[in-house]
Design goal:
76 residues; globular; alpha+beta; three-stranded mixed sheet
Length: 76
Amino acid sequence: MAITAAEIETLIRKAFPEANILVQGDDGQHFAAEVVDESFRGKNRVQQQRAVNAALKTEIDSGKLHALALSTRAPE
């Protein structure tokens, strides 16, 4: 039932196809992701992170994705 960093990246990429995405974590439960996407411009951090969490909702709700530390921003 564990999820991999690659699977998380694939799910985020479906919602943010042009984003720069880095997902780290290899224990199957705890991950960190950095998502840099132009669609975040003008949005606050909460709005940005809600958008990423929405892309991962099924995995979060099912418990497949236990912990994800998110860092989001628009490109500089």
